[in-house]
Design a protein that fits this description.
It is built from 17 helices and 22 strands. It is of the alpha/beta class and 491 residues long. It has two domains: 234 residues, 3-Layer(aba) Sandwich (Rossmann fold), CATH 3.40.50; 152 residues, P-loop containing nucleotide triphosphate hydrolases (Rossmann fold), CATH 3.40.50.
């Protein structure tokens, strides 16, 4: 169906994709695996016409193809779901889903009822309860992800490239997507799938191609691999148990949330967080997890209830108040809320801690550069230099830059909303170790994660939200995925 023949790509003197050849067969799920910076997303973007290769070419149905733009690839029959979501915020859900393929009536006027019905059909296929008339800017990241998937499905493409399609989805939404993929396979559609979630790979993939440092390590049937062997191929070494041992927290209450409410997102949210403790918020899409942590960081203050931090009432008007109080956050929406794309990697890392590098009203750039080099090395962020625009980095390296920024101010409470979204297995191990290191040092971590194994293994306690309310508070050491889901599912 589709072939990459000796494809290569450079960015600013950095080779991100060595000459690579791989083929994709009709009706298969072909997984591309590798660490961040391995070249997976770059290869997919060349196949989708987003990048022009510096060497090699693409063959489509046995004929050399020269895709000058994503539109060329889309017309040919290749659609892509991007890791970085790209909605048009001031259009509706239906308008985003049918963008470029609007149903038209006489005189090329858009048939609005048909457009809305088409969107409803695609959302129903994904078992998503999202109103087609809502503006995209009102959706959560998870809902936006579902809309992007629906848009790709609506193209009726012969090949769909899926780059981290489940990064922001809960277990329920992931299961719905998998059922949709099974239907696509049955129709002979080729799925090229990139993910950092091992369980997804072995549930879905027929064949797996592994990239490392921009080179193709090899392609094998999924049945011939197991998670340990796949990890070794990806990272070039064996990886020990990625979840570090949890130590018990102290008795000192650092954060106390009482009856926090912001209708209709959430109501009467109450929990405590001790020094040295990791508490995870779990729940399905729309349960209110991100909205609650946004209130604690001052992004969307609650309308009622109380937040006490270090024993004192905390009134937050905006994130600047939270930073001053000693609260740091890594947002789930790194593109919309986390990064300044026009700035370099280093400037993004130090953005919220510039006062530490000021001498009077002037920035001490030498001191800033020392801190940047230290953080880049500590989090193994791959970049040509600290001045490289952060928009040019892989999603995983952007995520690590956000974590580095969050910790630069030495906060006492760290809020991590989907911290391993788009992060490879090796980097996940580093972040998990960092989270436990923070807890051991007396910090407190409030974690939002759609990966239940991650939440259960990292957290001391799990607060399960259901439809904006606390459904249960569980001891993570004795809970399991089934118990969490049972409390999270609507009654």
């Amino acid at each position: 169906m589709l072939q990459a023949l000796e494809l290569s790509k450079d960015f600013g003197g950095l080779t991100v994709l060595q000459p690579t050849s791989v083929d994709f067969l009709p009706g298969e799920v072909h997984a591309l695996m590798g660490e961040n910076g391995a070249g997976k997303s770059t290869l997919m973007k060349v196949l989708a016409g987003l990048y022009r290769p510096d060497g090699g070419h693409v063959e489509w149905r046995g004929v050399q193809a020269d895709f000058a733009s994503p539109h060329d690839a889309l017309v040919a029959g290749i659609a892509m779901i991007h890791q970085e979501l790209m909605p048009i915020p001031d259009l509706t859900v239906a308008e985003n889903i049918t963008l470029g393929a609007e149903p038209c009536g006489r005189f090329w006027q858009i048939n609005r009822p048909a457009q809305r019905q088409r969107a409803l059909e695609l959302l129903k296929e994904l078992e998503a309860n999202i109103e087609p008339d809502r503006l995209m800017r009102t959706l959560t990241v998870a809902q936006t992800q579902v809309v992007e998937i629906a848009k790709a499905l609506g193209r009726r493409a012969d090949v769909i490239l899926m780059d981290e399609p489940t990064a922001a989805l809960s277990e329920q939404e992931v299961a719905a997507l998998f059922r949709s993929i099974a239907r696509l396979k049955a129709r002979g559609v080729t799925i090229v799938y990139t993910t950092h979630k091992m369980d997804e790979v072995f549930k879905l993939a027929d064949r797996i191609s592994v990239l490392r440092d921009g080179r193709l390590v090899g392609t094998s049937p999924a049945s011939e691999l197991n998670p340990a062997k796949l990890i070794q191929l990806m990272v070039g070494r064996e990886l020990a148990d990625i979840f570090p041992v949890r130590l018990p927290p102290t008795d000192e209450v650092l954060l106390e949330v009482s009856n926090l409410t912001r209708e209709p997102a959430y109501r009467d949210i109450s929990f405590r967080l001790h020094r040295g403790e990791v508490v995870a918020l779990a729940g399905l899409m729309g349960a209110g997890r991100t909205e609650v942590v946004s209130a604690i960081y001052g992004l969307q203050p609650a309308t009622s209830g109380e937040i006490r931090f270090k024993g004192r009432p905390l009134s937050l008007r905006d994130p600047q108040d939270a930073l001053a109080a000693g609260i740091g956050m890594v947002t789930e929406d790194r593109k919309g809320l986390g990064l300044i794309p026009a700035l370099g990697l280093g400037q993004n890392v130090t953005l919220t801690a510039l006062r530490e590098f000021c001498r009077g009203q002037m920035i001490d750039h030498k001191a800033e550069a020392v801190a940047i080099r230290s953080r880049v090395a500590e989090f193994t962020i791959k970049a040509t230099s600290p001045s490289q625009p952060i928009a040019q980095l892989s999603g995983g390296n952007q995520q690590k830059a956000l974590l580095a920024r969050c910790l630069l101010g030495d906060p006492d409470l760290i809020i991590l909303d989907e911290p391993t979204r788009g992060i490879d297995i090796g980097a996940k191990a580093e972040i998990y170790s960092a989270i436990q290191g923070l807890a051991r040092s007396g910090k407190a971590v409030l974690l939002v994660s759609s990966e239940l194994p991650e939440a259960l293994s990292l957290a001391h306690r799990i607060v399960v939200l259901r439809r904006g309310s606390v459904a249960a508070t569980l001891d993570a050491a004795t809970a399991d995925q089934e118990t969490v889901l049972r409390h999270a599912m609507p009654l």
